[in-house]
Input
Amino acid sequence: MRTLLVADMHLSHDTPEINQGFYDYLAHTAQGADALYILGDLFDAWIGDDLLDTPHPLGDVAREVIQQLHRLGSHGTAIYFIHGNRDFLLGQRFIDACQATLLSEVEQTRRYSSRRQPVHPR
Output
């Protein structure tokens, strides 16, 4: 079983190299993993899922992230997301589009012992 963890990517329209590195990670390293946990702050800022309907440059990044995560999930990798302090407004619409599961604090506690509980680094 191969489980991957990523945190604090802080993707934005101002970070094209980091964005591309994340896309490459999903397309190559993450392929075949059983699970990918995104431990918060995937985006540098998230002002709500309505961003997906706007021509804002971060909306373009978000749509690409959705496409990449959806592709990974459709190949059998379970994707789990935990809110961070910069993307706590990330909603169910984004999660569903990525084929991900949003974990609440309660679900995190139920799934893992306190020693291994994935949380957003503070």
In short: The chain has one domain: 3-111. The chain has a mean pLDDT of 87. DSSP finds four helices and four strands in the chain.
